[in-house]
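User: structure tokens for this one?
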Amino acid sequence: MGQDKIAVSKLGRAGKLVNTGAKVGGNYMKYYAKRLLKETSREELEEDNAKDIYEAFSALKGGPLKVAQMLSMGDQVLPKSFVDQFSRAQNQVDPLSYPLVRKMFKQAFEKYPEEIFDRFSKEAVNAASIGQVHQGEIDGQAYAIKIQYPGVADSLKSDLRLISPVASRILGLKKSEIAPYLEEVELKLMEETNYQQELENSEVIIEGCKQLDNLDFPEFLKHLSNDRVITMSWMEGDPLSEWLKSDPSQTERNKIGQSLWDFYQHQIHQLKFMHADPHPGNFIITKSNKLGVIDFGCVKSLPEDFYNAYMDLLKSGEKDVQSDDFVNALYKLDLLSDKDQIEAKELILSTFQQMFQLVGKPFFSETFDFSDNAYFQSIFTQGEALSKDPSLRGLTARGSRHFIYFNRTYFGLYQLLNKIGATVTTGLVDPR
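Assistant:
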């Protein structure tokens, strides 16, 4: 039947999260009581908490569910129970009921779906963090209609403030440490809730990437799209996660992985305007075995000065991370500052040299095997060690603000290629 109501008011949404906090507190009480009797485990506590938190986030949609979706990509840093639950946010979200969808559609177009479409599915074919998708048909042509959940845009800021303590506890971080992450989510979510902006973003990316091989994109109907509804041509295929369950051959994995890699490299180097939300729910494998891109809500524009400094970092780092060129690139990207004391500068430089040599590995060989789980584990092990290094505490936050989305995009791309298990032709090419 679907969810037949959603908390829209700030008070109603806050109440839902407060109740969830109480449930989590109760889970801890049960855990400590059972532990005395040796009748429970830490894993059972994490499973109970993950279930309760995800159910609340799923009911609220919007910002909370988007955070769950992003956290689900942290396989190596989150307990398995949280990853398992939050992964549902990619393509298994509980949808809203049809009467509520019908009401929202009428508000958007002053007509009910059946007054515009010859056929309109009462059941959602997909439900995500910001909206859900229904299938419609006009004159035998199938369309995907994405309808935004009510209250999502208006409650973003208050929602994210309320879930900050929950997210920080899950990640084992202080509230102050997670604040920049949630600020990033808030900024991009404000853009993602404007479907008219998504339509414009999609046109830029599709036009810029249409010459690439093995990619497929939908066509959009502007007269049936606005800031809360998007209508596009229906693309037949399997969600990426479902396709992986079919156990595709290594050749098929490599083909899709290469398409994904080429898609992102072209956007970064040629368009300097990129799809900044590389999670499985945004991609399908079409019936012709192409990579279909079905969501363009979150994008990032790369300023020329940032892009050039990033390329300087890659080119110099490929040759010698001890070189003056590498150090100068760090300054250009605000990773080093003239205000740094000598001791702090040496420490920061050493840290970035270590991380660069590890994270940059795919660029410094002709091909790279992203199925190598040991490589990803080494990244998280080094990152965890750095986060706990007392000598790094107290240093000011640094780095160009453009790194926030840029790094998240590359991290997501690496993670997707790891899930696919692809060996990809990478290598470093400077198109300037």
